[in-house]
Design goal:
4-stranded antiparallel beta sheet; alpha+beta; 64% helix; globular; 2 domains
Length: 386
């Protein structure tokens, strides 16, 4: 535990240094590049600051596009197959051999490139180039941007400012994704790459998650995916975030199979034990556990957690995620007895489903909503509208 804390403190210190370097860098741009160290009127300073922020935001999205493109390029080189490419909430996904645009976002991520992995050989698949492909691409784009900066800095000032910022943002992307680190929401690329190298079971867990994502992209529901992919990991392996994620996916499958008692027991186990579960998975498990409780399949008190500050923030960030909408529907109907509010959540799900990339997820959540409806009818409780 002490080594784990020391490592976390060291990485936090590195991130603080990166932040300080960023502040010094932008101070240099404002004071030395644009003003040559001379005082400028406030309106001109403010205008340049706004332009700087615009360039910064633009560079973040440009580097995010190239980062995910790096995963795609180096993934294809490693034998992976394209499934989806997302930047922000815009996703390009392949369905039935055709490419189409959908909408989806995940908190803590600017983008994601999902690919179907090649078959395992001797218990392994190529993971280093795929995972570090984004970092490599960010470094390449940063070097090109830096070269362009030196070529145009005496000719076109605004272009030179953009390219120097783009170079810096690319290096920043490379560091925060390449240095192995686990955030509150997820693992970064470096963390995933090195975890697979240290433990054969983590390697298999990585492969299984990629295969499940590929199957979902092809429209399969999680209950229709081979059962042997969902074995519950051993207790002593729950301190590995890739491996414990398989237990979360197993819980998702139990929900899709309507085995609510087992799903509730597993979610409660994962939420109560000390493990390496990711923050986003923890919050989604709370939503599932609350649903099981609301439909009378569990005697836990997770529905109360829906009103806690952290969970409220999560729900706000994930307001377009089907399973989140489903549990909000159930809480409005069964917890607040408000059919009007519940209907609004159902309308929202209908809107989300038009652009949501995974049709199987939508089918699953509609079935669960119908189960909540039937349970409400069986209770014959007085409902109110808003």
């Amino acid at each position: 535990m002490k080594n784990k804390n020391n490592k976390s403190n060291l990485l936090t210190f590195v991130y603080i240094l990166i932040g300080l370097a960023a502040g010094a860098f932008f101070g240099y741009i404002i004071n030395d590049v644009w003003s040559n160290g001379e005082d400028v009127p406030f309106y001109l300073f403010f205008f340049r600051f706004v332009i700087l922020m615009i360039f910064l935001i633009l560079s973040i999205y440009v580097q995010a596009m190239f980062h995910e493109g790096g995963h795609l390029v180096f993934g294809l080189m490693s034998g992976y197959k394209f499934c989806s490419y997302r930047v922000g909430n815009i996703m390009l996904i392949r369905k039935d051999g055709k490419l189409m645009f959908k909408r989806m976002s995940l908190p803590g991520t600017l983008g994601q490139c999902l690919m179907g992995p090649p078959d395992m050989k001797d218990g392994a698949v190529p993971v280093m180039l795929y995972n570090f492909g984004g970092v490599i691409m960010n470094i390449i784009v940063s070097i090109i941007s830096l070269v362009i900066y030196f070529l145009v800095r005496d000719i076109w000032q605004y272009a030179s400012i953009f390219f120097i910022i783009n170079a810096f943002v690319g290096i920043w992307f490379a560091l925060i994704n390449g240095i192995p680190f686990k955030t509150a929401a997820t693992n970064n690329d470096g963390k995933n790459a090195f975890e697979t190298q240290k433990d054969p079971e983590a390697m298999k867990a990585f492969w299984l998650q990629m295969k499940i994502a590929e199957a979902s992209s092809n429209g399969l529901r999680i209950k229709d995916i081979p059962e042997e992919w969902f074995e519950e990991p051993r207790e002593e392996k729950m301190n590995n975030s890739l491996i414990v994620s398989l237990a979360v996916i197993r819980e998702n499958r139990l929900m899709d199979l309507h085995e609510f008692e087992q799903a509730s027991l597993l979610s409660d186990k994962l939420l109560s034990q000390e493990n390496a579960i990711l923050g986003i998975h923890k919050s989604l498990l709370i939503m599932d556990a609350a649903f099981c409780e609301l439909i009378g399949k569990s005697d836990t008190s997770y529905s109360e957690k829906l009103k806690e500050k952290n969970q409220i923030l999560f729900i706000r960030q994930m307001k377009d995620f089907p399973s989140v909408i489903r549990t909000q529907y159930a809480y409005a109907l069964l917890g607040e007895h408000d059919t009007g509010k519940a209907d609004k959540y159902l309308e929202h799900l209908n809107e989300v489903s038009k652009k949501y990339p995974y049709e199987g997820d939508i089918q699953t959540e509609r079935e669960l909503i119908n189960i909540a409806k039937e349970y409400a009818s069986s209770l014959k409780i007085q409902q109110t509208g808003t």
